[in-house]
Batch of 3 targets.
Target 1
Amino acid sequence: MNQPDPVAPQDQPQEHPHGRPGERDWTDGHVARWQPVLPELDPVVEGAVTRMKKLSVHLRRVREQSLVDFDLERHEFDTLHKLAGRGGSAAPSELAQDLDLAPASVTGRLDALEKRGLVRRTPSTTDRRRVVVELTDAGRTTWLGAMDVLGHEEERLLGVLTPAERTTLNDLLRRVMLAAEEDPAAPHWH
């Protein structure tokens, strides 16, 4: 844990219409409490990592609430999401691959979603032995509704940044992710 280099005046954060001078968040208090305990703690690294964790938890809670609001279980949403990602139509085997599940598990999910009217299974037009799963209008509406809740919250949060700041944040996070993805022991994200 190294102490951060002094910040040059040109590197000072710029005032933004959504921020107030001297405004502190929960993480500032967290860092201040830990610095006397861990004098070598880099407050910038600790602050950034803690904020990323807190934002991740916040967005997960918003997503989970959206699932409750749309009467979806997480696995149901995941199935609708993967199906939507394939243009709204896929073979069950493709969904099983996308979801990293056994075909029998996908069949159970599809049975439940079909009973709710969110998907339908139809015979393939190219091979009558195969089945194609399609999102129904109700399935697409439900999936989009759940997605919109999270999307609105993401826009609200990142709305405090200018377009240039959003681009910079995205670029910086990409660099951090590339470092994480270089570690062969780290899990792979899909």
Target 2
Amino acid sequence: MAELNTKGGKKAAPTTDMTAMCDVAFLLLTFFILTATAKAPEVLPVDTPQSTVQTKLPTDNLATITIGKGKVFFDIKGKEVRKRTLEMMGEKYGLEYSDDDTSEFALMESFGVPIQNLKQIIDMKSADRAKAGQPGIPKDSLDNQLKEWLLNARRANIEINDKELEIAIKGDAKEEYKSIKQVMDILQDQKINNFSLVTGLRAQ
């Protein structure tokens, strides 16, 4: 509230009580701190190519293949789809996962280890997974686990969401073309001809 001091016949400059505004500012700050979700560090950070296209990827029904430093990582959107995919992969490779394992896997970000070592990654804390030095998912002709992850993720998504899974490739701008082509060949083998390429936004 503005106040005037008329003592001595001189008018003082009006003042404003800022207490209420400071209270509101601190309340808003507290609200945003308590409700914000910290972004988990990327397990395989890549420097994507630049583009002027601004089309956003869907927030569900999506699998992302990240390629960088000669490694391939895989991520699936949707907790139930992730759980079902892990169950199918366990059946394929003769591995068993507990309910706690599948629940934790459903909350994970992308991963890049052979299926035989996935349990070790699941048991780690989120911050430790980024430091674990994951070697990437095998994708060669003798042990093409990336193909199996894609196949089972697509089946799980149709089973749960009754939709075809969309695929996105997030490749490092400096990655060798043969690594990208190898992943594209795996997609082609499963008749996946439509997929997205993740890029960074280039200033125009």
Target 3
Amino acid sequence: MPKVVDHEDRRQRLAEAVWELTLREGLEGVTLRKVAAEAGVSMGQVQHYHASREEMVRDAVTRAVAALNARIETSVKAAAAGEEASAEVILRECLYAMLGRDEEGARLLRLSVAVFGRAVSDPALARAMAPDDGELLDLTAGLIAGARAERGKQAIGDPRVDADICWALATGLGVDVALGLRTVEAAETVLGYHLEGVLGRE
């Protein structure tokens, strides 16, 4: 009986090999040959899935972004299922997930930082790093409006713009944490201070 090949699993293994190489050697250290060695597969297998190094890197970055988004979704679902679930609790969990509060989250943030420079001159890579986030902004805007209502505050300004600013701040703080410029606790303090302004301003 022929062996069933899990192509998605193989692609993910190659992506994780790209991640590990990037974190150790920088993006310039990623080659098809090194990825093959890191993943423990042949060059032929790497080339079967990726026609070029650029394609392989973009796929790895796309998967990293998806993994980070999945972690945010998991945080939101866990908060929503909690006994004290509220729009504000869910909002905070959603944003704080960007701060690399555990090892895997921190690893994904460090990877993002490692490829930022290359994205400046590679539009396709830049798009992979910043996919359309319209749904996320809509969700966050709804949570901001809901949290303000829970506090008995009038709706002021544009919740979607507030959502955009919150994500920009959370992302920037996450980069600082990834680079070791701030502790997670310090980043949470800054983000929490900003959220108090968003949710409590008169």
